[in-house]
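INPUT
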Amino acid sequence: MADMNFADLEVFYERLATAIDEAGAEKTDLFLTKLSLLLANKLGDKHAALDAIEIALKDIS
Amino acid sequence: MRPEGRGDLDSLYFDYPQFEAPDRGGELVQETPVVIVGAGPVGLVAALTLARFGARSILLEKKSTFNDGSRAICVSRSSFHIFDRLGAVEPFLEKALGWTKGRSFYRGRQFLEFDMPHDANEKFLPMYNIQQQYIEQFLYEAARDTGLIDIRWRSEVKNIHEKAGRVELDVTDPAGAYRLKADWALAADGARSTVRAMRGLRLKGENFEGRYVIVDVKMAHDYPTIRRALFDSKSNPGYTVLVHRQPENIWRIDYQLKPGESAEEATREEKVRAMIAGILSDIGHEGDWALEWWSVYTANTLLLDDYRDRRIFFIGDAAHIVPIFGVRGLNNGVADGENIGWKLAKVVKGEAGEALLSSYTPERRGATLDVFANAGKSTRFMTPPSRGWALMRDAALSLSLSAPFAGGFANPRQMTPFTYAGSPITIGADEDFESGARPGDVAPNVRLDDGSNLVDHFSRSFTALWFGAGAGAEAPIAQLKKLDPDMRALNVAGAIIGAETINDDAGAIAERYGAKAGDVFLIRPDLYFAGRWRGENASKITDALKTILSAGEG
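OUTPUT
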Protein backbone atom coordinates (compact mmCIF):
# COMPACT_ATOMS: atom_id res chain seq x y z
CA MET A 1 0.00 0.00 0.00
CA ALA A 2 1.37 3.41 -1.01
CA ASP A 3 2.23 6.03 1.62
CA MET A 4 0.14 9.18 1.78
CA ASN A 5 1.77 12.24 0.11
CA PHE A 6 3.29 14.66 2.59
CA ALA A 7 0.95 17.57 1.92
CA ASP A 8 -2.08 15.36 2.67
CA LEU A 9 -0.37 13.97 5.75
CA GLU A 10 0.12 17.53 6.94
CA VAL A 11 -3.62 18.16 6.65
CA PHE A 12 -4.18 15.06 8.79
CA TYR A 13 -1.54 16.22 11.31
CA GLU A 14 -3.24 19.60 11.72
CA ARG A 15 -6.75 18.17 12.02
CA LEU A 16 -5.59 15.59 14.56
CA ALA A 17 -3.93 18.33 16.65
CA THR A 18 -7.18 20.28 16.93
CA ALA A 19 -9.21 17.06 17.39
CA ILE A 20 -7.08 16.12 20.43
CA ASP A 21 -7.89 19.52 21.90
CA GLU A 22 -11.59 18.96 21.16
CA ALA A 23 -11.53 15.55 22.86
CA GLY A 24 -9.94 17.10 25.96
CA ALA A 25 -7.16 15.85 28.22
CA GLU A 26 -9.23 13.17 30.01
CA LYS A 27 -10.62 11.61 26.85
CA THR A 28 -7.52 11.83 24.63
CA ASP A 29 -6.51 8.17 25.24
CA LEU A 30 -9.99 6.94 24.38
CA PHE A 31 -10.15 9.15 21.28
CA LEU A 32 -6.73 8.06 19.96
CA THR A 33 -7.46 4.38 20.62
CA LYS A 34 -10.76 4.60 18.75
CA LEU A 35 -8.95 6.32 15.90
CA SER A 36 -6.28 3.57 15.79
CA LEU A 37 -8.97 0.87 15.58
CA LEU A 38 -10.73 2.72 12.78
CA LEU A 39 -7.53 3.21 10.81
CA ALA A 40 -6.46 -0.45 11.30
CA ASN A 41 -9.83 -1.59 9.97
CA LYS A 42 -9.45 0.73 6.95
CA LEU A 43 -5.90 -0.52 6.40
CA GLY A 44 -7.25 -4.04 6.00
CA ASP A 45 -3.84 -5.64 6.60
CA LYS A 46 -3.19 -7.52 9.88
CA HIS A 47 0.62 -7.56 9.50
CA ALA A 48 0.88 -3.87 8.65
CA ALA A 49 -1.38 -2.94 11.57
CA LEU A 50 0.58 -5.08 14.09
CA ASP A 51 3.86 -3.79 12.67
CA ALA A 52 2.67 -0.21 13.22
CA ILE A 53 2.09 -1.02 16.91
CA GLU A 54 5.69 -2.23 17.27
CA ILE A 55 7.08 0.91 15.59
CA ALA A 56 4.92 3.20 17.72
CA LEU A 57 6.13 1.46 20.89
CA LYS A 58 9.74 2.45 20.15
CA ASP A 59 11.38 5.52 21.72
CA ILE A 60 8.53 6.30 24.09
CA SER A 61 10.37 5.91 27.39
CA MET B 1 22.32 42.49 27.34
CA ARG B 2 26.00 41.94 28.01
CA PRO B 3 27.96 40.36 30.87
CA GLU B 4 28.52 42.27 34.11
CA GLY B 5 31.12 44.98 33.75
CA ARG B 6 30.74 45.42 30.00
CA GLY B 7 28.85 48.31 28.41
CA ASP B 8 26.15 47.99 25.72
CA LEU B 9 28.71 48.44 22.95
CA ASP B 10 31.60 46.44 24.51
CA SER B 11 31.62 43.71 21.89
CA LEU B 12 34.21 40.93 21.72
CA TYR B 13 34.52 41.29 17.94
CA PHE B 14 32.92 44.50 16.64
CA ASP B 15 34.30 48.04 17.04
CA TYR B 16 31.40 50.43 17.19
CA PRO B 17 32.00 53.79 15.49
CA GLN B 18 30.48 56.88 17.10
CA PHE B 19 28.75 59.19 14.66
CA GLU B 20 28.18 62.88 15.31
CA ALA B 21 24.99 64.83 14.73
CA PRO B 22 25.01 66.97 11.54
CA ASP B 23 27.43 69.89 11.60
CA ARG B 24 25.63 73.21 12.03
CA GLY B 25 28.55 75.16 10.55
CA GLY B 26 26.76 75.20 7.22
CA GLU B 27 23.07 75.66 6.55
CA LEU B 28 21.18 72.49 7.44
CA VAL B 29 18.93 71.44 4.57
CA GLN B 30 15.35 71.44 5.83
CA GLU B 31 13.47 70.32 2.70
CA THR B 32 13.70 66.98 0.95
CA PRO B 33 11.67 64.84 -1.44
CA VAL B 34 11.91 61.84 0.91
CA VAL B 35 12.70 61.56 4.60
CA ILE B 36 13.41 58.14 6.13
CA VAL B 37 13.14 57.61 9.88
CA GLY B 38 15.51 54.88 11.09
CA ALA B 39 18.94 53.88 9.73
CA GLY B 40 18.64 50.13 10.33
CA PRO B 41 18.99 47.68 7.45
CA VAL B 42 15.48 48.47 6.18
CA GLY B 43 15.81 52.27 6.16
CA LEU B 44 19.26 52.00 4.57
CA VAL B 45 17.98 49.72 1.79
CA ALA B 46 15.14 52.18 1.07
CA ALA B 47 17.59 55.10 0.92
CA LEU B 48 20.01 53.15 -1.29
CA THR B 49 17.21 52.11 -3.64
CA LEU B 50 16.12 55.74 -4.05
CA ALA B 51 19.75 56.69 -4.66
CA ARG B 52 20.06 53.94 -7.27
CA PHE B 53 17.57 55.96 -9.33
CA GLY B 54 19.30 59.26 -8.50
CA ALA B 55 16.68 60.34 -5.92
CA ARG B 56 17.90 62.16 -2.81
CA SER B 57 16.78 61.44 0.75
CA ILE B 58 17.44 62.45 4.34
CA LEU B 59 17.88 59.57 6.79
CA LEU B 60 17.22 60.33 10.48
CA GLU B 61 18.60 58.02 13.17
CA LYS B 62 18.08 58.51 16.90
CA LYS B 63 21.15 56.47 17.91
CA SER B 64 24.80 57.38 17.35
CA THR B 65 25.91 54.00 16.03
CA PHE B 66 24.81 50.59 14.75
CA ASN B 67 22.64 48.06 16.57
CA ASP B 68 23.98 47.13 20.02
CA GLY B 69 23.71 43.40 19.35
CA SER B 70 23.26 41.07 16.44
CA ARG B 71 19.52 40.56 16.28
CA ALA B 72 18.94 39.36 12.73
CA ILE B 73 21.56 36.93 11.42
CA CYS B 74 20.00 34.92 8.56
CA VAL B 75 20.04 36.78 5.25
CA SER B 76 18.26 35.10 2.36
CA ARG B 77 19.19 34.82 -1.31
CA SER B 78 16.53 37.39 -2.22
CA SER B 79 18.16 39.95 0.13
CA PHE B 80 21.56 39.24 -1.42
CA HIS B 81 20.04 39.99 -4.83
CA ILE B 82 18.81 43.31 -3.40
CA PHE B 83 22.25 44.18 -1.96
CA ASP B 84 23.72 43.19 -5.32
CA ARG B 85 21.45 45.59 -7.23
CA LEU B 86 22.42 48.32 -4.74
CA GLY B 87 26.10 47.71 -5.57
CA ALA B 88 26.73 46.70 -1.97
CA VAL B 89 27.01 42.91 -2.08
CA GLU B 90 30.81 42.53 -2.19
CA PRO B 91 31.57 43.01 1.53
CA PHE B 92 28.62 40.72 2.37
CA LEU B 93 30.05 37.95 0.21
CA GLU B 94 33.44 38.39 1.87
CA LYS B 95 32.15 38.34 5.45
CA ALA B 96 29.00 36.20 5.50
CA LEU B 97 28.87 32.41 5.90
CA GLY B 98 26.64 30.81 3.29
CA TRP B 99 24.63 27.68 4.02
CA THR B 100 22.22 25.27 2.40
CA LYS B 101 21.55 22.60 5.02
CA GLY B 102 19.77 22.11 8.30
CA ARG B 103 19.89 19.20 10.73
CA SER B 104 17.41 18.32 13.44
CA PHE B 105 18.07 16.21 16.52
CA TYR B 106 15.69 14.52 18.95
CA ARG B 107 17.17 13.52 22.33
CA GLY B 108 20.64 13.83 20.83
CA ARG B 109 19.95 11.68 17.76
CA GLN B 110 19.83 13.23 14.30
CA PHE B 111 16.51 12.45 12.62
CA LEU B 112 16.42 14.95 9.74
CA GLU B 113 18.80 16.62 7.33
CA PHE B 114 17.21 18.97 4.85
CA ASP B 115 18.52 20.98 1.90
CA MET B 116 17.12 24.33 0.91
CA PRO B 117 16.22 24.76 -2.78
CA HIS B 118 19.41 25.45 -4.71
CA ASP B 119 20.88 24.73 -8.14
CA ALA B 120 23.72 25.77 -10.44
CA ASN B 121 21.61 28.52 -12.07
CA GLU B 122 21.40 30.50 -8.84
CA LYS B 123 23.74 33.44 -8.38
CA PHE B 124 23.65 33.24 -4.56
CA LEU B 125 23.25 30.54 -1.92
CA PRO B 126 19.82 30.14 -0.29
CA MET B 127 20.97 31.62 3.02
CA TYR B 128 23.88 33.46 4.65
CA ASN B 129 24.66 34.10 8.29
CA ILE B 130 26.05 37.52 9.20
CA GLN B 131 25.63 39.73 12.25
CA GLN B 132 23.27 42.69 12.04
CA GLN B 133 26.06 45.16 12.88
CA TYR B 134 27.93 44.14 9.73
CA ILE B 135 24.74 44.37 7.67
CA GLU B 136 24.25 47.92 8.93
CA GLN B 137 27.92 48.84 8.53
CA PHE B 138 28.14 47.63 4.92
CA LEU B 139 24.87 49.31 3.93
CA TYR B 140 25.89 52.50 5.74
CA GLU B 141 29.21 52.60 3.87
CA ALA B 142 27.42 52.13 0.55
CA ALA B 143 24.89 54.85 1.48
CA ARG B 144 27.64 57.30 2.49
CA ASP B 145 29.40 56.75 -0.83
CA THR B 146 26.35 57.61 -2.98
CA GLY B 147 26.52 61.31 -2.12
CA LEU B 148 22.71 61.36 -2.34
CA ILE B 149 21.82 60.30 1.19
CA ASP B 150 22.07 62.83 4.01
CA ILE B 151 22.46 60.61 7.09
CA ARG B 152 21.73 62.45 10.33
CA TRP B 153 22.72 60.55 13.49
CA ARG B 154 21.52 61.45 17.00
CA SER B 155 18.44 62.96 15.35
CA GLU B 156 15.13 62.16 17.00
CA VAL B 157 11.68 62.78 15.53
CA LYS B 158 9.50 64.45 18.15
CA ASN B 159 6.45 65.11 16.04
CA ILE B 160 5.21 64.25 12.57
CA HIS B 161 2.18 65.65 10.78
CA GLU B 162 0.87 66.49 7.36
CA LYS B 163 0.44 70.05 6.21
CA ALA B 164 -0.44 71.37 2.76
CA GLY B 165 0.31 68.09 1.02
CA ARG B 166 3.69 67.61 2.70
CA VAL B 167 5.00 65.82 5.77
CA GLU B 168 6.46 68.02 8.49
CA LEU B 169 8.74 66.57 11.15
CA ASP B 170 10.05 68.20 14.30
CA VAL B 171 13.59 66.89 14.70
CA THR B 172 15.78 67.25 17.77
CA ASP B 173 19.53 66.65 17.87
CA PRO B 174 22.25 67.66 20.37
CA ALA B 175 22.56 71.08 18.67
CA GLY B 176 18.87 71.94 18.90
CA ALA B 177 15.53 71.48 17.17
CA TYR B 178 14.35 72.17 13.64
CA ARG B 179 11.45 71.46 11.33
CA LEU B 180 12.00 69.28 8.29
CA LYS B 181 9.61 69.31 5.32
CA ALA B 182 9.35 66.30 3.00
CA ASP B 183 7.08 65.27 0.16
CA TRP B 184 7.08 61.69 1.47
CA ALA B 185 8.16 59.93 4.64
CA LEU B 186 9.21 56.33 5.26
CA ALA B 187 8.94 55.00 8.80
CA ALA B 188 11.70 52.42 9.26
CA ASP B 189 12.00 52.92 12.99
CA GLY B 190 11.48 49.34 14.07
CA ALA B 191 9.15 47.26 16.22
CA ARG B 192 8.62 50.09 18.70
CA SER B 193 8.15 52.67 15.92
CA THR B 194 7.60 56.14 17.36
CA VAL B 195 6.22 57.35 14.02
CA ARG B 196 3.57 54.63 14.24
CA ALA B 197 2.72 55.68 17.79
CA MET B 198 2.60 59.37 16.85
CA ARG B 199 0.20 58.55 14.01
CA GLY B 200 -2.02 56.65 16.48
CA LEU B 201 -1.64 53.36 14.57
CA ARG B 202 -1.40 49.91 16.12
CA LEU B 203 -0.10 46.53 15.00
CA LYS B 204 -2.78 43.85 15.10
CA GLY B 205 -2.59 40.07 15.28
CA GLU B 206 -1.54 37.32 17.64
CA ASN B 207 0.96 37.14 20.47
CA PHE B 208 2.18 33.55 20.78
CA GLU B 209 3.28 31.94 24.02
CA GLY B 210 6.65 30.83 22.66
CA ARG B 211 9.54 32.89 23.97
CA TYR B 212 13.21 32.38 23.25
CA VAL B 213 16.41 33.63 24.82
CA ILE B 214 18.84 34.44 21.98
CA VAL B 215 22.50 34.33 22.93
CA ASP B 216 25.73 35.04 21.03
CA VAL B 217 28.74 33.07 22.26
CA LYS B 218 32.35 33.41 21.09
CA MET B 219 34.14 30.09 20.82
CA ALA B 220 36.41 28.07 18.55
CA HIS B 221 33.86 25.37 17.71
CA ASP B 222 34.37 22.96 14.86
CA TYR B 223 31.12 22.47 12.95
CA PRO B 224 30.14 23.52 9.43
CA THR B 225 27.63 26.32 8.75
CA ILE B 226 24.57 24.12 9.15
CA ARG B 227 21.53 25.17 11.16
CA ARG B 228 21.00 22.76 14.05
CA ALA B 229 17.70 22.30 15.87
CA LEU B 230 17.75 20.28 19.10
CA PHE B 231 14.44 18.91 20.34
CA ASP B 232 14.09 17.55 23.87
CA SER B 233 17.83 17.82 24.53
CA LYS B 234 19.38 17.14 27.95
CA SER B 235 19.94 20.87 28.45
CA ASN B 236 16.35 21.93 27.68
CA PRO B 237 14.14 18.84 28.16
CA GLY B 238 10.76 19.11 26.44
CA TYR B 239 11.77 22.30 24.63
CA THR B 240 13.86 23.41 21.67
CA VAL B 241 17.30 24.87 20.98
CA LEU B 242 18.63 26.36 17.71
CA VAL B 243 22.34 26.71 16.90
CA HIS B 244 23.75 28.87 14.06
CA ARG B 245 27.33 29.68 13.13
CA GLN B 246 28.20 33.33 12.46
CA PRO B 247 31.43 35.02 11.27
CA GLU B 248 34.24 35.81 13.75
CA ASN B 249 33.79 32.59 15.76
CA ILE B 250 30.45 33.81 17.05
CA TRP B 251 27.69 31.24 17.55
CA ARG B 252 24.02 32.07 17.91
CA ILE B 253 22.18 29.88 20.38
CA ASP B 254 18.41 30.30 20.77
CA TYR B 255 16.63 28.38 23.51
CA GLN B 256 12.98 28.23 24.33
CA LEU B 257 11.66 29.35 27.72
CA LYS B 258 9.12 27.23 29.54
CA PRO B 259 5.63 28.74 29.84
CA GLY B 260 5.39 30.74 33.03
CA GLU B 261 9.17 31.13 33.32
CA SER B 262 9.87 34.81 33.92
CA ALA B 263 11.93 36.46 31.19
CA GLU B 264 13.61 38.69 33.77
CA GLU B 265 14.79 35.68 35.79
CA ALA B 266 15.78 33.68 32.69
CA THR B 267 17.96 36.48 31.32
CA ARG B 268 20.05 36.88 34.51
CA GLU B 269 23.69 36.28 33.58
CA GLU B 270 24.19 33.18 35.84
CA LYS B 271 21.04 31.61 34.38
CA VAL B 272 22.16 32.25 30.81
CA ARG B 273 25.65 30.88 31.56
CA ALA B 274 24.23 27.69 33.10
CA MET B 275 21.92 27.09 30.12
CA ILE B 276 24.69 27.72 27.58
CA ALA B 277 27.07 25.38 29.44
CA GLY B 278 24.43 22.63 29.19
CA ILE B 279 23.73 23.26 25.50
CA LEU B 280 27.45 23.30 24.63
CA SER B 281 27.81 19.97 26.40
CA ASP B 282 24.87 18.67 24.28
CA ILE B 283 26.62 19.68 21.06
CA GLY B 284 29.97 18.31 22.24
CA HIS B 285 31.87 21.56 22.68
CA GLU B 286 34.62 21.10 25.27
CA GLY B 287 36.82 24.19 24.86
CA ASP B 288 36.54 27.72 26.24
CA TRP B 289 33.68 30.03 25.42
CA ALA B 290 32.74 33.62 26.24
CA LEU B 291 29.36 35.31 26.42
CA GLU B 292 29.01 38.12 23.89
CA TRP B 293 25.40 39.35 24.03
CA TRP B 294 21.88 38.10 24.74
CA SER B 295 18.27 39.16 24.47
CA VAL B 296 14.76 37.72 24.74
CA TYR B 297 12.39 37.18 21.85
CA THR B 298 8.64 36.44 21.58
CA ALA B 299 7.03 34.72 18.59
CA ASN B 300 4.39 37.20 17.42
CA THR B 301 2.49 37.69 14.19
CA LEU B 302 1.45 41.34 14.13
CA LEU B 303 0.93 43.84 11.33
CA LEU B 304 -0.70 47.14 10.37
CA ASP B 305 -4.03 47.12 8.54
CA ASP B 306 -2.53 49.46 5.95
CA TYR B 307 1.20 50.02 5.44
CA ARG B 308 0.42 53.49 4.16
CA ASP B 309 -0.87 56.49 6.07
CA ARG B 310 -1.39 59.10 3.33
CA ARG B 311 2.14 60.39 2.61
CA ILE B 312 3.83 58.12 5.18
CA PHE B 313 4.80 54.52 4.42
CA PHE B 314 5.71 51.96 7.07
CA ILE B 315 8.50 49.53 6.21
CA GLY B 316 10.13 46.65 8.09
CA ASP B 317 9.33 45.97 11.75
CA ALA B 318 7.48 49.31 11.97
CA ALA B 319 4.82 47.65 9.77
CA HIS B 320 5.00 44.01 10.89
CA ILE B 321 6.47 41.61 13.45
CA VAL B 322 7.03 38.06 12.22
CA PRO B 323 8.19 34.92 14.08
CA ILE B 324 11.92 34.10 13.79
CA PHE B 325 11.34 30.58 12.48
CA GLY B 326 10.62 31.85 8.99
CA VAL B 327 13.85 33.93 9.03
CA ARG B 328 11.82 36.68 7.40
CA GLY B 329 12.10 39.56 9.85
CA LEU B 330 15.01 41.33 8.25
CA ASN B 331 14.53 39.75 4.83
CA ASN B 332 10.90 40.80 4.63
CA GLY B 333 11.81 44.32 5.78
CA VAL B 334 14.60 44.65 3.24
CA ALA B 335 12.12 43.67 0.50
CA ASP B 336 9.71 46.37 1.80
CA GLY B 337 12.51 48.93 1.54
CA GLU B 338 13.32 48.04 -2.04
CA ASN B 339 9.64 47.85 -3.05
CA ILE B 340 8.68 51.32 -1.82
CA GLY B 341 12.14 52.65 -2.78
CA TRP B 342 11.86 52.09 -6.52
CA LYS B 343 8.21 53.13 -6.67
CA LEU B 344 8.84 56.35 -4.78
CA ALA B 345 11.94 57.07 -6.89
CA LYS B 346 9.80 56.83 -10.04
CA VAL B 347 7.22 59.20 -8.54
CA VAL B 348 9.64 61.84 -7.24
CA LYS B 349 11.49 61.83 -10.57
CA GLY B 350 8.20 62.38 -12.41
CA GLU B 351 8.43 59.07 -14.29
CA ALA B 352 5.32 57.57 -12.68
CA GLY B 353 2.01 58.76 -11.30
CA GLU B 354 1.23 58.51 -7.60
CA ALA B 355 -1.13 55.61 -8.28
CA LEU B 356 1.95 53.37 -8.50
CA LEU B 357 2.35 53.79 -4.72
CA SER B 358 -1.04 52.13 -4.13
CA SER B 359 0.52 48.78 -5.00
CA TYR B 360 2.89 48.91 -2.00
CA THR B 361 0.47 47.72 0.70
CA PRO B 362 -1.17 44.88 -1.27
CA GLU B 363 2.22 43.53 -2.34
CA ARG B 364 4.14 43.83 0.89
CA ARG B 365 1.30 43.25 3.37
CA GLY B 366 0.41 40.20 1.26
CA ALA B 367 3.99 39.00 1.63
CA THR B 368 3.77 39.36 5.41
CA LEU B 369 0.50 37.39 5.58
CA ASP B 370 2.22 34.68 3.52
CA VAL B 371 5.12 34.65 6.00
CA PHE B 372 2.58 34.29 8.81
CA ALA B 373 0.99 31.29 7.08
CA ASN B 374 4.37 29.60 6.48
CA ALA B 375 5.96 30.54 9.77
CA GLY B 376 2.75 29.42 11.48
CA LYS B 377 3.57 25.81 10.63
CA SER B 378 7.10 26.14 12.00
CA THR B 379 5.89 28.05 15.02
CA ARG B 380 3.30 25.38 15.87
CA PHE B 381 6.05 22.78 15.66
CA MET B 382 8.73 24.73 17.55
CA THR B 383 6.38 26.18 20.17
CA PRO B 384 3.10 24.19 20.12
CA PRO B 385 0.21 26.46 21.11
CA SER B 386 -1.94 23.80 22.82
CA ARG B 387 -1.86 20.28 24.25
CA GLY B 388 -3.06 18.80 20.93
CA TRP B 389 -0.28 20.48 18.93
CA ALA B 390 2.28 19.50 21.58
CA LEU B 391 1.22 15.84 21.48
CA MET B 392 1.39 15.80 17.68
CA ARG B 393 4.85 17.35 17.75
CA ASP B 394 6.13 14.92 20.36
CA ALA B 395 4.62 11.97 18.50
CA ALA B 396 6.25 13.08 15.21
CA LEU B 397 9.63 13.49 16.94
CA SER B 398 9.47 10.13 18.70
CA LEU B 399 8.32 8.41 15.50
CA SER B 400 10.98 10.13 13.37
CA LEU B 401 13.74 7.99 14.92
CA SER B 402 12.32 4.79 13.40
CA ALA B 403 10.03 6.16 10.66
CA PRO B 404 11.91 8.92 8.74
CA PHE B 405 8.77 10.34 7.04
CA ALA B 406 7.75 11.84 10.39
CA GLY B 407 10.92 13.98 10.41
CA GLY B 408 9.42 15.98 7.55
CA PHE B 409 7.20 17.86 10.00
CA ALA B 410 10.35 19.43 11.48
CA ASN B 411 11.47 20.91 8.13
CA PRO B 412 11.05 24.70 8.45
CA ARG B 413 10.56 25.18 4.68
CA GLN B 414 11.83 28.74 4.86
CA MET B 415 12.48 29.46 1.23
CA THR B 416 9.17 29.59 -0.64
CA PRO B 417 9.19 33.04 -2.27
CA PHE B 418 6.02 35.11 -2.22
CA THR B 419 4.24 35.83 -5.49
CA TYR B 420 2.70 39.18 -6.47
CA ALA B 421 0.24 37.38 -8.78
CA GLY B 422 -2.67 39.33 -7.25
CA SER B 423 -0.96 42.72 -7.37
CA PRO B 424 -2.67 45.61 -9.18
CA ILE B 425 0.54 46.07 -11.22
CA THR B 426 0.91 42.44 -12.31
CA ILE B 427 -0.39 42.33 -15.86
CA GLY B 428 -0.44 39.98 -18.83
CA ALA B 429 -2.68 37.36 -20.38
CA ASP B 430 -0.92 34.44 -18.85
CA GLU B 431 -3.36 31.78 -20.08
CA ASP B 432 -1.21 31.70 -23.25
CA PHE B 433 1.69 30.11 -21.32
CA GLU B 434 2.01 26.54 -20.10
CA SER B 435 5.31 26.67 -18.22
CA GLY B 436 7.99 28.85 -16.67
CA ALA B 437 7.79 31.36 -13.83
CA ARG B 438 4.44 33.19 -13.77
CA PRO B 439 3.75 36.94 -13.67
CA GLY B 440 4.11 38.00 -10.04
CA ASP B 441 6.93 35.49 -9.45
CA VAL B 442 10.57 36.45 -9.17
CA ALA B 443 12.27 36.28 -12.58
CA PRO B 444 14.62 33.29 -12.42
CA ASN B 445 18.33 33.74 -12.92
CA VAL B 446 20.13 31.65 -15.54
CA ARG B 447 23.86 31.04 -15.58
CA LEU B 448 24.85 32.06 -19.13
CA ASP B 449 27.33 30.34 -21.46
CA ASP B 450 29.95 33.05 -20.80
CA GLY B 451 29.68 32.46 -17.03
CA SER B 452 27.76 35.68 -16.34
CA ASN B 453 24.31 35.79 -14.76
CA LEU B 454 21.17 36.75 -16.65
CA VAL B 455 20.12 39.06 -13.80
CA ASP B 456 23.36 41.02 -14.23
CA HIS B 457 22.18 42.06 -17.68
CA PHE B 458 18.91 43.46 -16.34
CA SER B 459 18.41 47.20 -15.96
CA ARG B 460 18.34 48.86 -12.53
CA SER B 461 14.86 49.86 -13.71
CA PHE B 462 12.48 47.94 -16.03
CA THR B 463 13.80 45.28 -18.42
CA ALA B 464 12.12 43.89 -21.54
CA LEU B 465 13.31 40.40 -22.37
CA TRP B 466 12.61 39.56 -26.00
CA PHE B 467 13.01 36.06 -27.43
CA GLY B 468 14.08 35.34 -31.01
CA ALA B 469 14.24 37.58 -34.04
CA GLY B 470 11.40 39.79 -32.75
CA ALA B 471 10.00 41.17 -35.99
CA GLY B 472 8.56 44.64 -35.34
CA ALA B 473 10.16 44.91 -31.89
CA GLU B 474 12.00 48.16 -32.65
CA ALA B 475 8.92 50.39 -32.35
CA PRO B 476 7.73 49.07 -28.94
CA ILE B 477 11.30 49.19 -27.60
CA ALA B 478 11.58 52.85 -28.58
CA GLN B 479 8.24 53.56 -26.86
CA LEU B 480 9.32 51.68 -23.73
CA LYS B 481 12.49 53.73 -23.53
CA LYS B 482 10.42 56.91 -23.75
CA LEU B 483 8.29 55.77 -20.80
CA ASP B 484 11.31 54.68 -18.75
CA PRO B 485 14.63 56.30 -19.64
CA ASP B 486 16.49 53.54 -17.75
CA MET B 487 14.66 50.74 -19.56
CA ARG B 488 16.90 48.09 -21.05
CA ALA B 489 15.83 45.69 -23.79
CA LEU B 490 17.50 42.30 -23.92
CA ASN B 491 17.17 40.03 -26.91
CA VAL B 492 17.66 36.33 -26.30
CA ALA B 493 19.08 34.62 -29.39
CA GLY B 494 18.34 37.52 -31.71
CA ALA B 495 19.73 40.82 -32.96
CA ILE B 496 16.95 43.40 -32.53
CA ILE B 497 18.21 46.95 -32.98
CA GLY B 498 18.16 48.80 -29.66
CA ALA B 499 18.51 45.61 -27.62
CA GLU B 500 21.47 43.81 -26.09
CA THR B 501 21.90 40.31 -27.52
CA ILE B 502 22.05 37.39 -25.05
CA ASN B 503 23.14 34.01 -26.41
CA ASP B 504 21.13 30.98 -25.40
CA ASP B 505 22.61 28.18 -27.48
CA ALA B 506 21.54 25.49 -25.02
CA GLY B 507 18.03 26.98 -24.72
CA ALA B 508 18.33 27.26 -20.91
CA ILE B 509 16.73 30.71 -20.71
CA ALA B 510 13.86 29.76 -23.03
CA GLU B 511 13.23 26.67 -20.90
CA ARG B 512 13.23 28.45 -17.53
CA TYR B 513 10.97 31.19 -18.89
CA GLY B 514 8.67 28.84 -20.82
CA ALA B 515 9.34 31.04 -23.87
CA LYS B 516 9.13 30.61 -27.66
CA ALA B 517 10.61 32.88 -30.33
CA GLY B 518 8.70 36.18 -30.43
CA ASP B 519 7.63 36.14 -26.74
CA VAL B 520 8.39 39.10 -24.52
CA PHE B 521 8.72 39.43 -20.74
CA LEU B 522 8.53 42.60 -18.65
CA ILE B 523 10.69 42.53 -15.52
CA ARG B 524 10.43 45.10 -12.71
CA PRO B 525 13.31 46.86 -10.97
CA ASP B 526 12.95 44.41 -8.05
CA LEU B 527 13.27 41.36 -10.37
CA TYR B 528 9.58 40.46 -10.22
CA PHE B 529 7.78 39.61 -13.45
CA ALA B 530 5.16 42.21 -14.36
CA GLY B 531 3.83 40.23 -17.31
CA ARG B 532 4.62 38.11 -20.34
CA TRP B 533 3.13 37.97 -23.82
CA ARG B 534 3.21 35.58 -26.75
CA GLY B 535 4.65 36.99 -29.98
CA GLU B 536 1.31 37.97 -31.51
CA ASN B 537 0.57 40.17 -28.47
CA ALA B 538 4.13 41.40 -27.87
CA SER B 539 3.28 45.05 -28.55
CA LYS B 540 0.97 45.01 -25.48
CA ILE B 541 4.10 45.38 -23.33
CA THR B 542 4.06 49.17 -23.83
CA ASP B 543 0.46 49.50 -22.60
CA ALA B 544 1.40 47.35 -19.62
CA LEU B 545 4.27 49.63 -18.66
CA LYS B 546 1.99 52.67 -19.10
CA THR B 547 -0.52 51.11 -16.73
CA ILE B 548 2.14 50.22 -14.16
CA LEU B 549 3.65 53.69 -14.17
CA SER B 550 0.18 55.27 -14.37
CA ALA B 551 1.78 57.46 -17.00
CA GLY B 552 -0.19 60.57 -17.82
CA GLU B 553 -1.88 60.52 -14.40
CA GLY B 554 0.73 62.24 -12.23
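end of record. The interface with chain A takes residues 107, 377, 380, 384, 386-389, 391-392, 396, 398-399, 401-403, 405, 408-409 of chain B (CB under 8 Å).
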